[in-house]
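Researcher: I'm comparing several assemblies side by side, and this is the next one on my list. It has 236 residues spread over two chains. Same procedure as the others: predict the full complex and return the structure.
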Amino acid sequence: MRKLVILKSLIDFIWFITCLPLALLALVFLVLFLLNAEVLTLAPWMDSLENSSEVIAQIYAVIVVVLIYVGIYCFYLFRKTIRYFMKVKPFHLDVIQNFNRIGNLLCIIGIVGGILVFLGRVVFESEIKINLGISPYLILVCMGLFFMVLSEVFKLAKHAKEENDLTV
Amino acid sequence: MPIIVNLNVMLDKREMKSYELADEIGITTANLSILKTGKAKAIRFSTLEAICKALDCQPGDILEYVDV
């Protein structure tokens, strides 16, 4: 249980130090960017805004911010799931649903993020670059699949526990 | 489930209360209730043996297969 307490503390720390400020900053950035696209030139990953249309850049930024929010929501779900573990209810239906939801969302973030970066390079930097090695997007998809598998495992465990509880 | 538990019938025949049987065979009344209401997914041989001994009957008197 000590490991769980450490994990919970770390998750809480990341939630309050990173996730909440990030959510706020992303929103502020989006509002500023939608009002004035020049803000994006401050970002090091996109300094050739003059090559692309402002509207495309704005759509791009909206999708990036949405992905950030989805990522934060995944973290929120994970934090919620940890609370069930703290209450010693690991086979609750919410745990299974949360793991499955986290898995699906991480896969979506990984795939959409990968496509977005690829298209971003094409549109904003006019270059095609395919990374065949380990990339953060691939890791995100793997993590998503892992969470989905974990959800299936917990579903099996819940079934086994129910059967055990109903054995007289 | 096509397996019917006729524990109530046997308890009536032996004029025995549920809590008395539960006490005798050493299981909780909650578990006996699960068995009586047909919610049980499985029954241990040891429990069946204890019930048969307490009610002086055969497993077939308690369990019945009904084709649904």
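Model: For your comparison table: The first helix of chain B runs from residue 7 to 13.
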